[in-house]
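Sequence design from tokenized structure. All designs in this work follow the same two-part layout: the structure record, then the generated sequence. An example of the structure record is given first.
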């Protein structure tokens, strides 16, 4: 709830805002600015224009106070995080060195490849991915549905990926990409089985000409809005992990033929100007994914994908492309960097057009080269045809 003093301050700023003449910016609607801000704080989708509108309102309010420093009335607008000046080592390059007690490697122990037993299981699941008809039966005329799951960054990046992939001659025509990710729909929202987001997912699947039975692969890139409120590491990362476990259970229940989910963590957030998901939270959320996969490898029943071991509760989980790099310090393996222009001018958190393209290229390259993906994602592969 916005403090009464903040409401009075907003009202006074409205009264003090000068009348605008034709050709100048329109007067600020401070109620609208407050509503946009509250939506953003809840993790809902906010456009770049709306963020700019809030910044105008904040500036006008400061001017209405005579340029005074931020006071108690500004509690309705959370403070920007301090400028990030630290450097971190990508999880893929940490080896056995430690970060807050956690060693490196996507799969732990400095390893970036899954254990052989898990890779073998993934290959068995991969070869089962094949064109299915609307009832879920193998068919030469069937489809392979690939769904994205996540929040605003995810839908922005996956939309760019869809454009690239659908123009790539190596992708079979029967591999249908569906963007299920939605702005503001963070891990907490996906953990809610009654959330409106599920209806939108169903609508998008139907619009793509698919049924739930044809969704066989997903790419999940998820985070929590304002992770600082959940506690410092590892608390906020544990909270995200718990929500992902629940969300994955919902996905498997809704899409019974969903066999593999590739997971990615956040991109670099060292340029963030809001508390939405700055560093080091973006970096640390990679551990949520690692713990999740490690628990599945360790046989946790709520993550079981193998009917021979009991009730199937979850698809098989693997790392997809690891997207984080330490700002303008190139990654050793591929030289990936993130410049300021790769992130939105308004919040430094959402990807700009160049940032989206970088993620899209990484995802496309992964699906075209990873051993668990090429059997069904590349043209001419055996799994892209009915057996």
């Amino acid at each position: 709830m916005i403090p009464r003093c903040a409401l009075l301050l907003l009202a006074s700023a409205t009264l003090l805002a000068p009348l605008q003449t034709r050709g100048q910016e329109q007067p600020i609607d401070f109620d609208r600015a407050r509503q946009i801000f509250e939506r953003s704080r809840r993790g809902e989708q906010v456009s770049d224009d709306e963020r700019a509108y809030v910044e105008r309102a904040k500036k006008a309010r400061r001017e209405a106070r005579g340029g005074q420093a931020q006071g108690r009335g500004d509690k309705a607008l959370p403070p920007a995080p301090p400028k990030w000046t630290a450097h971190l080592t990508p999880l893929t390059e940490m080896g056995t060195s430690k970060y807050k007690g956690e060693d490196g490697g996507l799969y732990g122990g400095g390893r970036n490849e899954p254990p052989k037993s898990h890779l073998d299981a993934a290959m068995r699941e991969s070869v089962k991915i094949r064109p299915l008809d609307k009832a879920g039966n193998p068919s030469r005329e069937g489809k392979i549905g690939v769904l994205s799951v996540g929040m605003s960054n995810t839908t922005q990046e996956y939309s760019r990926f869809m454009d690239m992939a659908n123009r790539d001659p190596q992708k079979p025509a029967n591999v249908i990409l569906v963007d299920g990710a939605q702005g503001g729909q963070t891990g907490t929202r996906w953990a809610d089985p009654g959330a409106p987001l599920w209806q939108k997912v169903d609508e998008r699947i139907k619009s793509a000409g698919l049924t739930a039975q044809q969704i066989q692969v997903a790419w999940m890139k998820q985070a929590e809005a304002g992770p600082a409120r959940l506690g410092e590491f590892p608390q906020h990362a544990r909270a995200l992990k718990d929500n992902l476990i629940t969300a994955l259970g919902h996905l498997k229940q809704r899409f019974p033929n969903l066999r593999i989910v590739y997971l990615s963590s956040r991109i670099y957030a060292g340029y963030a100007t809001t508390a939405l998901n700055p560093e080091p939270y973006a970096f640390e959320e990679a551990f949520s994914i690692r713990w999740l996969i490690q628990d599945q490898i360790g046989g946790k029943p709520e993550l079981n994908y193998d009917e021979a071991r009991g009730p199937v509760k979850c698809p098989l989980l693997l790392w997809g492309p690891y997207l984080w790099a330490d700002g303008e310090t190139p990654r050793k393996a591929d030289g990936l960097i993130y410049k300021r222009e790769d992130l939105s001018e308004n919040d430094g958190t959402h990807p700009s057009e160049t940032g989206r393209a970088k993620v899209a290229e990484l995802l496309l390259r992964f699906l075209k080269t990873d051993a668990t993906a090429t059997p069904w994602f590349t043209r001419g592969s055996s799994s892209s045809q009915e057996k």
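Residues 235-254 form the longest helix (20 residues). We note this feature because it recurs in several other targets discussed in the main text.
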